[in-house]
Amino acid sequence: MGTVGMLRAAGIGPADEVVVPAFGNPEVAEAVIQTGATPVYADIDPATYCLNPDFVDAVVGPRTAAVVVVHRFGRPADVARLHRLGQRRGLLVIEQSESDAPYAEAERRRANAAYLTARLSGVRTPEDGDAHTYQQYVVRVPGNGRPDRDAFARAVRARGVECRVPVKTPVHRVPLFRRDVCLPETERAADETLSLPVDASLTRRELQRVVSACNALGGLLQPAF
Asked: What are phi and psi of 215, to 5 degrees?
């Protein structure tokens, strides 16, 4: 059953609000709107890119009926705290994963991620949390007042390494779903994150090419004077 079906089965409707993340694709907010309810955005944990329970708690109001939690990039959200919050505040907590992968594939991606983390410099590597399957290997390229992430991405691609911006526009900035809310961690993540290759099929030579391309660009990250 999809998100819309789960919300409708729980009786969520026009009188309700549902807390959702803005860092990601708009499908979750769209599912809430399809039930007639109103999406309310909460900020994320900068390490997991998933909803931060403290920020969720801060936006819960008298009409809040549910929270939709998305496990992002293969890193699980803090579901234990979110479920405790749901029990305390009387909220339905719905979990949504981006995708699943066979065990062997996930293990290979973990090994590739460990290789990159041990060798990359000049970018902020992801934290290795419990059960992280690295569906995407997402690094941070801090801004320093100019679009370093975008310049970095162009330079990495010029060196033959594919990379992509995982979330180009947070949902609360998309016209159809726009809300005037303060989500500093979401904004920062959207401006700084870059997904590097970590596929299970990558060879050691290809991983080394990723490392070499990124480490050669460390000067882009120095503060502008």
From this structure: -70, -25
Mean pLDDT over residues 48-73, rounded?
97
Q: Write down the pTM of the prediction.
A: 0.91
d(CA 72, CA 33): 21
CA 93 – CA 189 distance, rounded (Å): 24
* All residues at 6 or more sequence positions from 88 whose CB lies less than 8 Å from its CB, including other chains: none
Distance CA 83, CA 45 (A): 16
Task: Check residue 9 and give its pLDDT.
Answer: 92
pLDDT at 219 over 80: no
Instruction: Report residue 151 as tokens.
Output: 């310049």
- Check residues 190 and 128 and name the one with the higher pLDDT: 190
Q: So what's the pLDDT on residue 225?
A: 31
* Calpha distance 113→128 (Å, rounded): 9
Look-up: residue for tokens 């994320």?
44
Q: How far apart are CA 187 and CA 83, in angstroms?
A: 26
Q: Give the C-alpha distances (Å, rounded to integers) separating 189 from 172, 183, 194, 201.
A: 14, 10, 9, 27
Per-residue pLDDT, averaged over 118-138, amounts to 90
pLDDT of amino acid 218: 65
| 53 dihedral zone (left: phi>0; alpha: psi -120 to 50; beta) | alpha
**Domains of the chain, earliest start first:** 3-97 (3.40.640.10), 103-221 (3.90.1150.10)
Q: Please, where are the H alpha helices in 11-138?
A: 27-34, 53-59, 79-89, 103-119
